[in-house]
Amino acid sequence: MLTGKELGAAIEQARLAKGVSKKKLAEDFGVAPPSVQGWVKTGRIDKSKLMQLMDYFSDVAKPSHWGLSDRVTEFLSISNPAGSDVARNEKESNVIPFSSRRKSADISFVTIPHFDVSASMGPGCAPPEHNIEVIRDITVHVDWLKSQGLNFSKLENLAIIDGDGDSMEGTFRNGDALLVDRGITDVRTDAIYVFTLDGDLFIKRLQRMTGGSLRMISDNPIYPAIVIEGAQLERVHIQARVLLAWNARKL
């Protein structure tokens, strides 16, 4: 993911390609014109607004324009042609519902898509450059979700991805299907998150430290914790929070 002046230049290139003025861009996003000038000059922009900006320019700028693969971008925010409407709805949610999600006829059940996405529980992985797919749909009773003691943003933000690697051994195993909440896009509490760092996709435990730094923890004790601080924090983008492992244990 681009940052700093490189991100600012990418925003300006996309604006010119789309043929919108800075004034019009500011109006569509509900901000003052100097804010847009700041985005272009410094690349400093709120993470949730950046994702909506990428969606706004999706007709003229592919994910690679922003330094991301198609799969990482679509995991967080499926492209919506009505870019300006997305921007105006920012306060309601920064996650766009997956358009192909099947709805159950019985409102007591929810259908959760299992995405063809694997995130690294090891040293990080670069997601392949092809469109996201749904492997299968899993339908569960809403009461079952409640019985697990899960707290999530919205039912429509739930998804399932696969974990890859052994660094979270003891909590998750390699290949476990993980239920995640795509509505969580910042570190609100110490928990396990799906996030990108320098374009690689990770699943790790993140812990806030004094001064705003993050401690990236592998539950497998053979892997040392890593402190993310300073300018590196700007390159961390939270994609989701992991809620539970959808697995079967042999008894």
Write the layout of secondary structure elements.
Layout: H1 4-18, H2 22-29, H3 33-42, H4 47-56, H5 70-76, H6 83-88, E1 109-120, E2 134-141, H7 142-147, E3 158-164, E4 177-181, E5 191-197, E6 200-208, E7 214-217, E8 226-228, E9 236-246
Structure report:
With 251 residues, this protein is an alpha+beta fold. The chain folds into two domains: 4-88, 434 Repressor (Amino-terminal Domain) (Orthogonal Bundle); 109-246, Umud Fragment, subunit A (Ribbon). The chain is built from seven helices and nine strands. The protein has helices spanning 4-18, 22-29, 33-42, 47-56, 70-76, 83-88, 142-147, and strands at residues 109-120, 134-141, 158-164, 177-181, 191-197, 200-208, 214-217, 226-228, 236-246. The chain has a nine-stranded mixed sheet with strand order 2-1-3-4-9-5-6-7-8. Strand 5 (191-197) and strand 6 (200-208) form a beta hairpin. Helix 2 (22-29) crosses helix 3 (33-42). Residues 77-100 and 127-131 have low confidence and may be disordered.
Distance between the termini: 43 Å
Strand count, sense and closure of the main sheet? 9 strands, mixed
Look up the CATH topology of the largest domain. Umud Fragment, subunit A
- CATH class of the largest domain equals Mainly Beta
Q: Which term fits the overall shape?
A: globular
Name the CATH superfamily classification of the largest domain.
Umud Fragment, subunit A
Proportion of strand residues:
25-35%
Q: Order of helices and strands, N to C?
A: HHHHHHEEHEEEEEEE
Structural class: alpha+beta
What is the radius of gyration computed over CA atoms, rounded to a whole number of angstroms?
19 Å
Q: What order do the strands of the largest sheet run in, or round the barrel if closed?
A: 2-1-3-4-9-5-6-7-8
Report low-confidence residues grouped into runs of 5 or more: 77-100, 127-131
The proportion of residues forming helix, as a percent range, comes to 10-25%
What do the pLDDT scores average to?
Answer: 77
Helix run count: 7
Number of strands: 9
Domain tally: 2
Could you say what the CATH architecture of the largest domain is?
A: Ribbon
